[in-house]
Specification:
- The structure is a single chain.
- Helix content is 67%, strand content 12%.
- It is an alpha+beta fold and 377 residues long.
- It has two domains: 3-161, no CATH class; 185-370, Heat Shock Protein 90.
- The strands form two sheets. It has a five-stranded mixed beta sheet, covered by helices on one side.
- The longest helix has 66 residues, at 119-184.
- It is rod-shaped, with a radius of gyration of 45 Å.
Length: 377
Amino acid sequence: MTTTTARFIDSVRSSRRKQFWLLQGAGWFGLCFITFFSLTLWYDQLDWPYLAHIFLQALLGLLLSLPLHLLYQALWGKPILLQLLLDSAAVAITAALWTALRLVTFYWLTREPNLLQDFGGWYFGSLMIFLCWSAIYFSIRFYLLFQSEHDHLIETEAWAESEKWKRLEAESAARESQLKMLRYQLTPHFLFNTLNAIAALVQVQQSDDAHKMIVNLSNFLRLSLDHNPTAKITVEQEIAALMLYLNIEKARFGERLHIDLDVAETAKQALVPSLLYQPLVENSIKYAIAMNEDGGTIRVSARDSGEQLLLEVEDTGPQLQASGAKPLSGRKIGLQNTIERLNGFYGKQNYRFDMQPLAPSGLKISIAIPLEEFPDY
């Protein structure tokens, strides 16, 4: 296919006007072809007047189809009964005009007598031809309408799909920003307390303890920054991060802080949001250890139940009142932060967060999340 031919085909595809004239030319030329082989050749009328009449009647038919085309365009969209009535009348009138013109030109070219006697036969042929022309016209018109609606539907669906993905990306970005914000809220709280403790050690000239606490703080902050706030880590990594934090707190509280770890082997490769334990343990230290002269114990556990990962943090803090309002008032920030992070990771229906007072004193926090294990490649 040459470049010129390709350009012509592209121009026809993009222009309804060119398509109309191309179909007009092909249709009326086809009529000349059919007339020659079905009538002229059959009756052995190969003289030039008969041949000229074949092309002349096709030209007259093409010219008469133009006002018919304009009428169809004007009536498009009108009530169907009115359109059908007027279109039928227009076809009948156009066929009659074309029959008369065909007879006149045939007589003018051939001088054959008594042509009016054959008007009915000629008219029937004319009527069939214009009915076929109208049928083809409306078939193409409805096809183009259907194609246009189909393309519009596809464009609408594509736009809706695009908007859906944009909305999902926006929601994902908002969720990621929220998770990052919630995770980074953990650090300033704890950092403030740690720096105060380091300052206190420096004031009493306990440089070795201050140096150890600075190293532990550096390791903990480095680990916090290395982990993506929106990603999950294994329970084993989470416990390692928690121990970095607890080593800092042990330097502050010494023998007043007791840690009891109970992590099942089957739970170590399960996935959890990073630094999930830290705000819960920090609350326990602040409200169970720091407020008690004798200190206390914090118990951290993790185990799996087949379909869920069960995480618990217990402390031996003050006994909760029945209402739970005042004793929990100080703990609300860390707890709410944890709940919002769990909402972001799992949705409200896919995890459980419970708080339960212990006897004779203390608080137990239980979290159940879907069991996800680190892939073993």
